[in-house]
Every structure is written in C-alpha cells, then in structure tokens.
Amino acid sequence: MNILNLFHFWKPVLEIITLWFIIYHIMLFFEGTRAIYVLRGIMVILITFFVFQKLKLDVLSWLLTKLFTISVIALLVIFHPEIRQGLARLGKRRIFPTLMKEEQMDYILNQIIKAVDSLMRDKFGALIAIENKDSLSSYINNGVLIDARVSSELIQAIFTPNNPLHDGGIIIQNGRIMAAGCFFPFTENEDLSRIFGMRHRAGLGLTEETDAIVIIVSEERQNVSLVHQGRLYKDLGHQEIIAKVKEIFKA
Amino acid sequence: MKINKINIGNFFKHHFLLKLISLILAIVLWFYIKGEIGNFKK
User: Fold this and answer.
1) CB-based contact A31 B32, cutoff 8 Å
2) Nearest-CA residue of chain A relative to B7?
3) Residues 1-42 of B with CB under 8 A from A
C-alpha cells in the first residue's frame, strides 16, 4: 500500500473527525442556553430528511423539503433572543484561554471559601464572578478597576456594607480580582422563584450570557450558591464548591 | 481560564452524550454531502 492509497483511506476519517470537532463545539457552545433547542430541532429535521432520501420515500421527502425552510425560519424567529445571546458570547470567546496551574486555582478557591465563610457568619451578601473562556472585560469596564491579588481579606472588605464597592459583584480574571462594583445583567428567566433576590438574578443573568462561574452568598439565608450556564446549585458546602469549580474548568 | 492538566483518559468522561451525538451527526452529514457532491458531478 503506497502513500497515496494510505491518504485516500485516511481522507474520509480526517474529514469526519474535522466535522465532528466543528459540530461538537457548536453544540457545546449553545449548551445550557435555549438556543440549543433550535439546533436540536434543525438536526432532527436534517437527519429525518437524510433517512427519507436514502429510503426513497419520495412523498415524505417532498413534504419535508417544503416544510424545511418554514420550520427553520419559525425556529429562528421563536428563539431569536437566545441566538442573539449565543452570537454575542461568540464575540466574547477567547481564542487562547489563559492556562492556570492547579496550585494557583487551589489558592484562589481557598481564599474565596475563607471569605465566603466569614461573610456568611457576619450575614453579609456577596457576588463573585470567576471568568472562564468568555471574556468578562465588558463587565469589568462598568465596575471599579482593582487589579489585586485574590485574598480573603480583600473580598471581605469589598463586601462589607457601607463600603462604596459593596454593591454589584467582583470579577476574578486571570487569577486576580480585576474589578469590584460591577453590574451584571439580570436573568430573563420568569420562572425563577421570588425567594431569589437581585443578587441571584444578576448571577444567573451573567451565566446566561457567558460561561463564567458565579458564587453567591445570600445574606438572608446565610448560604452559598454556585451558578453556571443558567443553572443554580443551592446550599453548597466548601468541598462541593471547590469540586464543582474544578470540574467546570477541566471540562 | 483552564486548569492545564489535559488527561486523554477524561475525554469521554465529560459531555459523553454530546460527543456521541455530534459524532453521529458528523458521519450522517459526511455521507449526505458526499452523496450531494456525487449527484452534482453527474
């Protein structure tokens, strides 16, 4: 078998792997948003159309061809806010995400946990966003620039009431507290229980627009929640928070 | 940010179903496009 034959054999494999990579990342990108339903709907229609063609079901193929364009337009119209959000996220996505050593991540998480512990005891609320692959620079710009090493004492100081920066959230970017007093968009989820206040709504809203991880300390209920991709994980213990954050970053 | 421990063994641990569905879609799409290209050349 010469090199040319080898290439002809591997060409389809290479093409399928490339297609797999592209489709996977598109679906992963929209995972956790409602726009995934649009994608799934379009995929189901395409697979059904392919099957009908292969089985030579001409009548059904004809019907699906006529319905296809209308269905795609209908899905795009119904889910246009989610698609807009998804495309906005695409613009924020970093091509080369910053790599962080596990020891540095451990240090940051330990400092956050210490701060969260103290804030809960003192019945102070907190909103802490940790940047993932999507840039949070636009939210940093609407806050007050700090650019300081992550420390439990600084986090506690920021969220102490009557501190000028205690309103809004802090953003941790590249292992540093980049800004405080940042305002996050509120969630558009109308089904959210009324027991969740503005802090939780802001945390959820940010995770619906980006892949950031948000840790929320509730001053009323004195508990800690973690939010990621629009999902709220309530009443987490210290080890659960650390494990969840590491799981998200390793994914 | 990303923790820089890339473990090939973990490849199928995360988003396994999503990876499986995308693989099936990739194969289906490849055959469909190949068929369309074949029809076009005729």
Assistant:
1) no
2) A250
3) 1-5, 10, 14-15, 18-19, 21-23, 25-32
The nearest CA of chain B is from the CA of A16 a distance in Å of 6
Residue A97 located in a structural domain: no
pLDDT of residue B13: 59
Q: What pLDDT sits at residue A143?
A: 92
- Boundary residue ending a domain (A38, A67, A92): A92
Same domain (yes/no): A177, A242: yes
A20 and A129 belong to one structural domain: no
ipTM of the complex: 0.72
Cβ atoms of residues A132 and A213 within 8 Å: yes
State whether B1 and A47 contact (CB < 8 Å). no
pLDDT tens digits along A84-111: 766 766 666 655 555 567 788 889 999 9
The three state secondary structure string of chain B is: CEECCCCHHHCCCCCHHHHHHHHHHHHHHHHHHHHHHHHHHC
